[in-house]
Structures are given as structure tokens and as C-alpha cells.
Amino acid sequence: MERESSVYKEYLQILERELVPAFGCTEPIAIAYGTALAADILGKMPEKIRVEASGNIIKNVKSVIVPGTGGMKGIQTAAAAGVVAGHPERKLELLEELTREDQQAIRDYLKKAEIQIQKAGGCRTFDLTVTVWSGVREAKVQIADSHTNVVHIEKNGRVLREEEETAHENGAREERPALSIEGILDFAMTSDIRDVEELLDRQIRYNMAIAEEGMKHDYGANIGKVLLASYGDDVKIRARAKAAAGSDARMNGCELPVVINSGSGNQGITVSVPVIEYAAELGAGREKLYRALLISNLTAIHLKKGIGRLSAYCGAVSAGTGAGAGIAYLMGGGYEEIVHTIVNTLANVSGIVCDGAKASCAAKIASAVDAGILGFYMYRNGQEFVDGDGIVKKGVESTIANIARLGRDGMRETDREIIDMMIG
């Protein structure tokens, strides 16, 4: 792929947009960002807050610790943390520097402020509106379709910003970039490493740090430690264990940042940590690791794009598939090995559901990465799932299109049922 071509530049833009740092689970941070921005526009400490959130946001905030708060959970905590933290310009990193004094300020604010929660109407799966009041003053912020995409701002009834609604279906479809597995592999093999080195170095540094933290200490269900204790420390186990450990740490209060993928820190950990672990085991050079990470990251983004940011379809599946593709490349695989790894993985674990952010995400990540590794070894041993095997269709892009349809349309009612089970 020519470095000066429009497609090459578009792929770079996708990576720069998607591989950004976040401090803690991204849904509570989005709420904190919304309240911080609304309070900043209001110009005063709000006395009352109303958070209107789509069911998928509520689902993902319900059971996860809000980072920097000393172990507190929930939408009210996230909203209060945003007010106390301020600095909305820091976006998904705004809670990173909360102090013990700030934690106490959050508790005090929760006692005195009125914070209402409502389920948002409309068809978007990611829809968040925060309204704040102080006396007769009022400010409102709406974030839609992704975690920092501010589409509406108003103050005292006067509209300050209004974005035109982009084409989407139930919040899932955005305008799709020119991604394909063939294009991803072309880009990954021909990229000038100088263009991606800084992005990928940060992903390696951040995501391995939280994985190591998860392995060292007691977080969540300690899936990583269970895997190593039960199955040994072969690279196939370590790749799963370290990714799971990073998720366990992140879901359960670890105050380390993560480089996300497709709006999710868990997916960011899953696409990177197993690939990094395999590269170390195989003695791959830095350049080969970078190219493997390009394959992994972009494959996951490609798979998620048709499904949408939030769904009943577990995003760990897309990320585990991406990791499998990156590992296939590290193991000497070319186009055929990589596309069959992708199809074999999707045929295996595409039924895993998302029931919110919490400790069991780590177990799902371990299963998805295992499926990605198995998908490669299946093809290496002459085995594959073929056209007509359930949702598998001839050609990798046709199978990916079926997965998008499954996650976006087929699991819509499943999503509603899950949300009703969790929040009533």
C-alpha cells in the first residue's frame, strides 16, 4: 500500500482515533466526562444532576468500580466524580488524578446533591444526556454513538452546539471506513513503522503494565492466576492469563490507564496482550510485533464496526479474533492462515453475550483468546469451518457480514432481555 494513498492515510486515522488511552471502564468515564463538561458549561457546582442513559450504558456501569473513587460503583458515583474532577478537556483520562481528598469530596457531594437516573428513549445503543442545575441556571450535554462524541450542548435553553445526526441503525451503524481483511494485511505489511510506532509503543507499555499488575495482586475473580495454577505456563495459557488479569484489574479498581480498542479497554487489552506475549515467546523483533499488532487491532475494529459500540454480542469475541489473527502472523502465517483463523474463531465463540462490565469479563476474554489460538492451530492441522457450517459463509468478508448482522440485529431482543434482567 502506497504511503501517500488516501486508503493508507485513512487506516492511520482509524488507528489514531481508536487507540486512545482511558483510565478505567469507559462507560462510567463517559458519564463522568458528561457531568464534568456540563458543570463547566454551567459555570457553578451543580445542585442537581439528571443522567439519561441508554440501557447498554446503564448495564456497563452497574457493577464496575469507578476509577479513582476508592472502590465506589454506580452511575451516581460516576456523575459525582466528573463534577469533582472537572477538566473535561482530559476526556477519558479525567479521573486519573483524583486524590484522597477528592474521594472524600465525591462522598460529600453524593450526600448533598440530587442525582437522578433515567433510561434514555430513542434507538441509539450509546446515548447519554446529562443535565445539571444550580438555582435557575441549567446546562445540558448529549454524547452519542461513542464515548466522547458530543452532539448537543445547551445553556439556559440556548443551543451552543448541535451536530447533525449521522446515519446509524439502532446506534450500531456508523459510516464504515474502507476496512477489509485484505486491506488490513496490505497495510500491516507495508506500513512505515515510524507512522505507528508511538501509538503501538503506548499500547504495549500501558496494557502490559495493567496485565502484570493483575497477575501480581488480588483483583476480581483472579482468572489469570487460576489459569496458570490449573494449566501451567505454556505460552498458550500465559497469553490468555495475562489478558484476563488485565481485565480483572481494570474492572475492579486498578488505577492504571489502558489503550482502548473500539471504545473498550477490555478489548484493547485483549487485542494486544496475547500478541505481545507470543512475540516475546517466539523472539520476534520489534518490527514484527508492530505488524502483528496492526493486524490484531484493525481486525477487531473491522469486526466491531458493523456491530456497533455496544451490543449483547460480547466485544471480547471480536478482540480475541483479532488476537488470533495477530498470533497467526507471528507463527509464520500468511493471508490464508489469517483469514481461516478469523473464520474458525468466529464460528466457535460468537454466541458469548455481553451482560455488562464486571469481573466475568476476564473469563470471557480468556475464552475468546483461547478460541483465537485454537482457530489458528485448527487450520495448521488441516481443519476448518466452511461455507454452510452455521453462520459461516464462503469468504471471510461474507462471514464477517453475518457476524455483524447477528450482533447488530439478531441479538437486539437478547440485549433488551439482559438489560431487563439486570436493571428491571
Explain the overall architecture.
It is a single chain. The longest helix has 21 residues, at 360-380. A hairpin with a 2-residue loop joins strand 6 (150-155) and strand 7. Helices cover 55% and strands 10% of the residues. The termini are far apart. A six-stranded mixed beta sheet has the order 3-2-4-5-6-7. A two-stranded antiparallel sheet has the order 1-8. The chain is of the alpha+beta class. It has helices at residues 6-18, 26-42, 55-61, 75-85, 100-112, 181-190, 197-216, 223-231, 235-251, 265-282, 286-305, 315-330, 335-349, 360-380, 396-410, 412-423, and strands at 21-22, 48-53, 114-119, 127-134, 137-144, 150-155, 158-162, 258-259. The chain has two domains: 23-162, 2-Layer Sandwich (60s Ribosomal Protein L30, Chain: A); 181-423, 2-methylcitrate dehydratase PrpD (Orthogonal Bundle). The model is unreliable at 167-177 (pLDDT under 50). The chain has 16 helices and eight strands.
Give the overall average pLDDT: 91
Strand percentage lies at 5-15%
> What is the global morphology?
globular
Q: Architecture of the largest domain, CATH level 2?
A: Orthogonal Bundle
CATH class of the largest domain: Mainly Alpha
Structural class: alpha+beta
GO biological process, one term: L-cysteine catabolic process to pyruvate
GO molecular function: L-cysteine desulfhydrase activity
InterPro entries: Ser_deHydtase-like_asu, UPF0597
Pfam families: SDH_alpha (PF03313)
List keywords for this structure.
Ser_deHydtase-like_asu; 60s Ribosomal Protein L30, Chain: A; L-cysteine desulfhydrase activity; UPF0597 protein BEI59_22225; 2 domains; six-stranded mixed β-sheet; two-stranded antiparallel sheet; alpha+beta; 424 residues
